[in-house]
Amino acid sequence: MAASQKPDNVAAVMKVFAILEGLAEQPSIGLSELSQRSFTSKSTAYRFLQTMKELGYVVQEEESEKYALTLKLFELGGAALENVDMIQLANTEMRALSESTHEAIHLGALDEDGQHIVYLHKYDSHFNLCMNSRIGRRSPVYSTAMGKTLLAWMDESKARQVLETTKFIARTPHTLTSAEAVMNELPEIRRTGVAEDREEAELGVRCLSVPVFDRFGKAVAALSLSFPVVRYDEQKRDEYVQLLFKAGQRVSSGLGFHEYTFSGPVETS
């Protein structure tokens, strides 16, 4: 019996979601138009809508008799997003990056002081010669690609405040050692979507980084790809950046952000 009922049950679920999608396309909609958009008969659409009203997912306007979604679906989505584990989401993308590049991959977020990034997750390089790092390690925002990424998506006044209260230490001859030098890089990072550490944190190591956004569009973390300069191929930089963009986009999408539009060194809003 269950097997014979399954096709009808599946069809019913598909009709329900078609109706929900039709409702989501505009603030309110009449039964006839909704049945056409969802490729469902008026009688079937009406029956499902009455059930959705009883469950609190749909309301009907008294005068126009049009239907509209309530915020209950938003509440469900919000509850689901609160249970999303960013590290678990990022792990899938980081593993893919590791397998395709064989280089070190990191996920980092701002420490509480705003002046450091903390390594939350990592995949080591497949090679012996690689960047030295460990989960839980803190590094200054001004000398790391991930730090610059997160500074770039801060409010400008906040980023400046963080940098002006930071004690700069020249870890290598390439380290930026003033708030102004770092601030000058941030507009270009926002424009292109990618930040770079050019041997600024560790001599002989270069890093590329992109942001990870939550559902509100806030940059809550950064992904990075690190190479010893002896293996860094400038001609493959665009390829590396595209891989990072795809990873950042997928992780951000998992967190509820779907407007990740970076595609390279072009103007972005």
Topology (elements, then pairings):
Layout: H1 2-24, H2 31-37, H3 42-55, E1 58-60, E2 67-69, H4 72-82, H5 86-101, E3 104-110, E4 116-123, E5 138-140, H6 145-152, H7 156-164, H8 179-192, E6 195-198, E7 205-213, E8 219-228, H9 237-254
Antiparallel strand pairs: 1-2, 3-4, 3-8, 4-5, 6-7, 7-8
- The total strand number stands at 8
Distance N terminus to C terminus?
55 Å
On the 0-100 scale, what is the average pLDDT? 86
Can you say what the CATH homologous superfamily of the largest domain is?
GAF domain
Number of helices: 9
Largest sheet: 6 strands, antiparallel
Output the structural class: alpha+beta
* Residue windows where pLDDT falls under 50 for at least 5 positions: 264-269
> How do the strands line up in the largest sheet?
5-4-3-8-7-6
Q: What percent of residues adopt helix (DSSP H or I)?
A: 40-55%
Q: Globular, elongated, flat, extended or rod-shaped: what is the shape?
A: elongated
Question: How much β-strand is present in the residues?
Answer: 15-25%
Assign the CATH topology of the largest domain: Beta-Lactamase
Secondary-structure element order, N to C: HHHEEHHEEEHHHEEEH
Radius of gyration, whole Å: 24 Å
Subunit organisation of the chains: single chain
Write down the CATH class of the largest domain: Alpha Beta
